[in-house]
Design a protein that fits this description.
The complex is a heterodimer of chains A (476) and B (422). With 476 residues, chain A is mainly α. In chain A, 59% of the residues lie in helices and 3% in strands. Chain A has 25 helices and four strands. In chain B, strands 1, 4, 5, 6, 7, 8, 9, 10 and 11 form a nine-stranded mixed sheet that branches. Chain B has a two-stranded antiparallel ribbon with strand order 2-3. In chain B, helix 5 (139-145) packs across helix 12 (399-406) and helix 7 (201-230) packs across helix 9 (248-266). The longest helix of chain B has 30 residues, at 201-230. Classes of the chains: A mainly alpha (476), B alpha/beta (422).
Chain lengths: 476, 422
């Protein structure tokens, strides 16, 4: 197999999102350069008129709550301010999906359309990688309205920048703060907690460790990164007060509507000790300093290098590459393009064409790209993701979607893919030439057996089903 | 090929009409045992102190504050179990099982894992090892390999869900199944695909399993629909209202999965072991007490288990179901009216084959000095003791195999006796 041709196929199908017609030929003899070029220039803006900022969406939700709260007060249902507020929240919650769901549909379809059409698919795959690394999930209502905006606002601008900036943007984004309940987390000696205790308030005001734990365990050091429960608690106390602004009343009043807001009243005063260092207390900067420290720790570099290598090279990535990527991270203080360059230039990454089993999203993106299918609108446009088991922005946990073959290659999952491919092929198979398409998108990585099976198909549709079901198309 | 002989692999929607029978070539071997086992994973860390509140413990009410359930007696209070422990009011089917002596709760139980990462804890729960990432296979798969002769391990287990969870991965081939809502694939195309996969070991195995399962799925559905018809007042009567009132999506999913699992297990020559997972137990905020988020999820789970029993029909008599979670939650509530990751948890063993009607717990108490690291319910029972008992007494796995291959390194963990009926 000509190694230049092999490299082109690997660049397009494993590093990219799957070949569009003609893409393999366009990549030509310089696949590594093709990848590196995609890192230059500004990150793409998803352009759709209906895409709003997270602040806008949250503000609308806050407005809705305020309306409902005013309604309740007017009807004088309850003398107790607190329980009427809760009832207002419940009533508003019934209508919030009607605000959030259209937002989600617009965001998810815009993202899908971009993935299908983009000429910078490597950059797009990196974006999806980071989005999944800092996963939020729409099974929490607030995230339904914010996940897409978070990817556009906190992830996209930093994919080719510094990890520190990416980390900072994510951990301050309302979507993440709301997802992991940090917006209401208050230190035990914070002004708010002290006040509540003095008043004998019924509602407990206290610390929530959820975000802090996930920052250490998932986002930076990794579960074996050498932190302790005490460190989790210290970080939680340091980021107490990292909240979201704009609520109409109650504890969460004040601050810019729908945006990050540091609530000094919730912040636990005093120095914090973490990972053998002491961080003096200067309010918001305390948490920021800790994040900056975490971003350049060797454990973080190793953790992220491993995840990147697993995503782009193989389920069991070669440790030599991980080590070189880690070194590049540390030498450059987390400048991500330096790390990507090591990944791209690793000879180990260019050996095996079908190293990774495609996730459902990979599979759908690659099929749409190969067939140049239109994405459409609304819930129907997103049906393939639901059908094949990977609803956009719904990994179900902050750990995000898993990344190995065993996680996705179940027998019923395979049959569903094949059945879906067949349904697509029935629709468009007579307008595609699967024989030429097979060579166009798979190049030299197309097996002879597959090529002849496609050639001997009894119809255009069946030929396309066979192409989309071929082992070479199930993997990247 | 005539339409009479063409096999079509159909939509497996369990609510479709029963008229679509298929000449299914059932792939399973002959009967090995009447006994069935289902393992249900509760991912996220189910709050055992909420599901099975120790209402008789003097510290319980103070620790749990607004999340505490009232002593049995009033509306919305805990359901009575044994005077010390209660059961969450949303678990009405489980309470019926308790009264019928078909439920045993195993409280203050845990795997050997003592940190608080979901993912590592689930790994330990499923792998059956003593620390995370020590195996790429699960204890239940290794148990399938060790099942007594007379059966083919490769058809003994089925995982319900889009993918096979770690607990069922390993050397024994298991089937996986989840509902499809896709149009049919014709046999001709499938034959060509089988050829296409001939040189790909993974895909050819998966496709073969899928096709065998799909044929069985249709058969299973037929059986389940018949079962529902046998009990018209049981399954459908009470449930529609509850489904509407609660979280409809979770409830509907559990119902489908439970019916499918029962359909598989009920077949006389079908799989003997089924696994499925549930999510959403990680209640860090606004957990609720008798009502609220956790209550809704418990209700959906409870409804699913009721459907499971109904759909199993007479096979329930020989069935054991174990529900387990990766860890419990903090004894006290946190600052967001929820609970955080803990250690000691509650596990549930139910079924017609269970010698139930009790709570097994070496109760450490909830006084500050008795808590694990000052915050969690202290575990006093290694969950592997329970797993070993069930595998030994219900499925006939030898003690030797249990100590050597199914739970390596567990020699000092003694099985419990008498969990199952003679």
């Amino acid at each position: 197999m000509n190694s230049a041709h092999l490299a082109a196929a690997i660049a397009v199908n494993r590093f990219g999102l799957g070949a569009r017609p003609g893409e393999l030929a366009a990549v030509g003899a310089e696949p590594r350069a093709w990848l590196l070029r995609q890192l230059d220039g500004k990150p793409p803006l998803l352009s759709a008129r209906e895409l709003r900022s997270s602040a806008e969406t949250l503000t609308r939700a806050i407005e809705l709550r305020r309306e409902r709260g005013a309604d309740r007060k007017r009807r004088r249902r309850s003398a107790d301010q607190q329980s009427s507020g809760e009832r207002a929240a419940r009533a508003a919650a019934v209508r919030l999906p009607s605000i959030y769901r259209p937002v989600y549909l617009h965001e998810a379809t815009a993202r899908f359309a971009h993935a299908v059409g983009t000429r910078r698919p490597f950059l797009e795959r990196l974006t999806h990688f980071w989005s999944n690394h800092f996963a939020v999930s729409i099974d929490k209502l607030a995230v339904l309205g914010l996940a897409g905006a978070m990817e556009r606002e906190a992830i996209r601008p930093h994919v080719t920048g510094r990890f520190t900036d990416l980390l900072m943007a994510v951990e301050k984004h309302p979507a993440m703060l709301l997802y992991l309940d940090n917006h209401v987390s208050a230190g035990p000696s914070s002004p708010a907690a002290t006040l509540a205790a003095r008043r004998g308030a019924q509602r407990k005001v206290g610390i929530n460790e959820n975000l802090a734990r996930e920052i250490l365990e998932l986002h930076t050091l990794g579960v074996n990164g050498g932190y302790t429960q005490k460190d989790v608690t210290s970080l939680a106390l340091a980021i107490s007060g990292w909240s979201v602004g704009g609520s109409p009343g109650g504890r969460l009043a004040g601050g810019p509507s729908g945006e990050f807001h540091f609530r000094a009243a919730f912040h636990e005063p005093g120095a914090k000790h973490l990972l053998g260092r002491s961080f003096g207390d200067d309010g918001l900067s305390q948490g920021e300093s800790i994040l900056r420290e975490l971003a350049v720790r060797p454990a973080t570099a190793t953790h992220l290098a491993t995840r990147l290598a697993r995503h782009f090279i193989a389920d069991d990535p070669p440790s030599a590459v991980i080590a070189r990527m880690r070194d590049a991270w540390l030498e450059s203080d987390g400048h991500l393009p330096a790390v990507y360059r090591v990944l791209i230039e690793a000879p180990e990454a260019w050996v095996e064409p079908h190293a990774k089993f495609k996730t459902p999203a990979d599979y759908i993106h690659s099929a749409y790209r190969a067939l140049d299918l239109p994405v459409g609108d609304g819930r129907r446009a997103l049906a393939p993701f639901e059908l094949l088991g990977q609803r956009t922005f719904m990994p179900g946990s902050p750990a995000g979607w898993p990344d190995t073959s065993a996680d996705w290659d179940g027998s019923s999952a395979l049959l569903k893919r094949i059945a879906w491919a067949d349904a697509v092929a029935q629709r468009v198979g007579d307008r595609r030439n699967a024989r030429t398409l097979a060579t166009d998108v798979l190049g030299v990585t197309l097996y002879d057996a597959s090529a002849s099976a496609i050639a001997r198909a009894e119809s255009g549709a069946q030929a396309l089903t066979l192409l989309l079901s071929a082992p070479e198309f199930m993997r990247r | 090929m005539s339409s009479l002989t063409r096999r079509r692999f159909l939509e497996s929607s369990l609510l479709a009409g029963a008229g679509t029978l298929v000449t299914a070539r059932l792939a399973f071997a002959s009967v090995r045992t009447e006994r069935r086992f289902a393992f249900v994973l509760l991912r996220g860390g189910l709050d055992g102190l909420a599901a099975v509140p120790p209402v008789g413990d003097p510290q319980y009410a103070a620790l749990r504050g607004q999340l505490a359930l009232a002593v049995p007696g009033g509306a919305g209070a805990a359901l009575p179990l044994d005077g010390f422990f209660g059961l969450h009011p949303a678990l009405s089917f489980l309470h019926e099982c308790h009264r019928a002596r078909e439920l045993t709760v195993l409280h203050a139980s845990a795997t050997p894992y003592r940190e608080r990462s979901h993912f590592d804890a689930q790994d330990v729960l499923e792998s059956g090892m003593t620390r995370p990432h020590a195996a790429t296979s699960g204890w239940l798969n290794r148990a399938l390999v060790a099942l007594p002769r007379g059966g083919n391990a490769s058809e003994a287990g089925v995982a319900l869900g889009a993918n096979v969870p770690l607990v069922m991965r390993g050397p024994a081939e298991v089937a996986s199944w989840s509902p499809t809502h896709l149009a049919s694939l014709d046999e001709e195309t499938l034959a060509r695909l089988t050829d296409l996969y001939a040189r790909d070991p993974l895909l050819s195995r998966r496709l073969a399993d899928a096709l065998a399962s799909e044929a069985n799925a249709v058969e299973a559905r037929r059986v389940a629909v018949e079962a529902a018809a046998e009990n018209p007042s049981g399954v459908s009567a009470g449930l529609p209202e509850r489904a509407a009132a609660g979280r409809r999506n979770a409830g509907a999913r559990y119902a489908d999965t439970a019916r499918a699992a029962a359909g598989f297990l009920r077949q006389s020559d079908g799989p003997r072991v089924a696994v499925f997972d549930t999510n959403g137990w990680d209640t860090h905020a606004n957990e609720g007490a008798a009502q609220g988020q956790l209550a809704q999820r418990l209700r959906a789970l409870d409804d699913g288990l009721r459907i499971f029993k109904q759909a199993l029909g007479p096979a329930w008599r020989h069935t054991a179901v174990l529900l387990a979670t990766e860890f419990g939650r903090t004894a006290a509530t946190n600052g967001t009216r929820g609970t955080d990751h803990g250690t000691g948890a509650a596990a549930f063993l139910l079924g017609g084959a269970v010698a139930g009607g009790r709570v097994i717990a070496d109760w450490p108490g909830l006084a500050r000095g008795a808590l694990h690291e000052g915050r969690d319910l202290k575990p006093t029972l290694d969950l592997r003791a329970v797993l070993k008992s069930v595998l030994r007494d219900h499925l006939g796995v030898s003690p030797r195999a249990l100590d050597d291959t199914v739970f390596p390194g567990s020699g000092s963990v003694r099985s419990l006796d008498g969990l199952l009926r003679g």
